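S1.2 Input.
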Amino acid sequence: MDKRVAVITGAASGIGKGIAEKFASGGDHLLLVDINETELDQTRRKLLQEYPEVKVQVASGDLTSPEFVEQIVEQCKESFGTVTVLVNCAGIFPSTPFLRISRKEWSGVIDLNLSASFFLTQAIARLMIERKPENANIINITSAASEVARPGVAHYCSSKAGLKMLTQVLALELAPHQIRVNAVGPGLVETEALLNTLITEKAIEEHKEKVSFAPLNRTAKLSEIAAAVYFISSKEASYITGQNLLVDGGYSAGRVFKSFAAKGDEMS
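S1.3 Output.
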């Protein structure tokens, strides 16, 4: 096939949906994966309406299930023959203080955010090695939390830091097969889910405080995260592997003190 084939997990909403829209706009065929069957079908219909020349398939299920991972691979073989790009975006973000995180909650976060990406990548990489698509690459969606610790999300930070290191190890192991492996780490992103939380004055104030931690002093647009992922997947990035590209408005670079920010306002 002339067009690329991209498998995108967590594609029913949020960042995953934004990435799917970007790839569709570039003319790539898609297999969209998510546990939310209703929203996943809505995303599929929207993309087919906007980009009728693109083939869009869906697979709904639990990524922590070995049987579902096998189903994804078989669907790729039957419908597309191969996979050019895998984007591991599915994940959860519960917030619980360390001393109250249960074994079940810890396992749930690690299983989906890290282990599911590991085993799906393993299965897709085997297919890539067998079929040898041009510019094959894998992109893990990490987070600024892979670099900067935050209280209340010990399991999330651990899963994203683990995904970052997995990215680096796989970049080494898959390089002989000409498969690139990178990660994109978003900061605070303006998703529909985030906007839906801003319903009280307290929530709005807390959100403003979080935004202020980033030197650029705003949230990222979905299109900005998707653009970074799309670039990393492209031929223009063909010599980039093993990297964790943080798209976080400078959050991970350090902190801007309010006194300095105030001086900046005076100068402007």
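S1.4 Remarks. The first strand starts at residue 5 and ends at 9.
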